[in-house]
From TrEMBL:
Superkingdom, taxonomy of origin: Bacteria
Keywords assigned by UniProt, alphabetized: DNA-binding, Transcription, Transcription regulation
Ranges in coiled-coil conformation: none
Keyword flag DNA-binding: yes
Full protein name: Lrp/AsnC ligand binding domain-containing protein
Pfam families given in the database record: AsnC_trans_reg, HTH_24
Transmembrane parts of this sequence: none
Entry-linked InterPro entries: AsnC-type_HTH_dom (IPR000485), Dimeric_a/b-barrel (IPR011008), Tscrpt_reg_AsnC-like (IPR019888), Tscrpt_reg_AsnC/Lrp_C (IPR019887), WH-like_DNA-bd_sf (IPR036388), WH_DNA-bd_sf (IPR036390)
Residue ranges occupied by any HTH asnC-type domain in the UniProt entry: 7-68
Length: 156
């Protein structure tokens, strides 16, 4: 569990700017926020050490790389106490990109990305169904992602 860290307006501004462009130099970000690049470096290090900032990711157009199928799968667990064990097994499947523990009908809701329908069938039939603790699944195939964005961070 991370320690409670007091964040000020500058921390929130840094987070917001970095969510828009994680490649911005500390010097350029400092100029934009009217502080030194060294201050930005120290603040980002503090945010990383606290666990608030967790690496930087490259945005990739998966369709351009041939990954044409995105599916969301509602998982019914045999028992809710099996969540941790099932999540551990799901993490071993490379096509699973997101796992959420949920309320409502499903015990878990996952997102998977596959090259084609045959790979989706393989993941559903040969991978998910062999995981102990999964009772059954419901699959929803995404036809299009209209947009994806980060949340706007309040600065005060």
């Amino acid at each position: 569990m991370q320690n409670k860290l007091h964040l000020d307006k500058l921390d929130y501004q840094i987070i917001q700017e970095m969510m828009v462009n994680a490649e911005v130099s500390y010097a350029d970000l400092g100029k934009k926020l009217f502080v030194s690049g060294g201050t930005i470096h120290v603040r980002i290090k503090k945010l990383e050490d606290s666990g608030i900032v967790q690496g930087r990711r490259l945005a990739v157009d998966l369709k351009a790389l041939g990954y044409d199928v995105v599916a969301f799968i509602g998982i019914y667990l045999e028992k809710s106490s099996m969540y941790d064990a099932v999540a551990k097994e799901l993490k071993k499947i490379p096509q699973v990109v997101r796992v959420n523990y949920t309320t409502g009908n499903y015990g878990m809701f996952i997102e998977i990305v596959c090259k084609d329908i045959q790979q989706l069938r393989y993941v559903l039939h040969d991978e998910l169904q062999k995981i102990k603790g999964i009772d059954r699944t419901e699959t929803i195939i995404s036809l299009e992602e209209s947009f994806s964005r980060n949340v706007i961070i309040a600065t005060d």
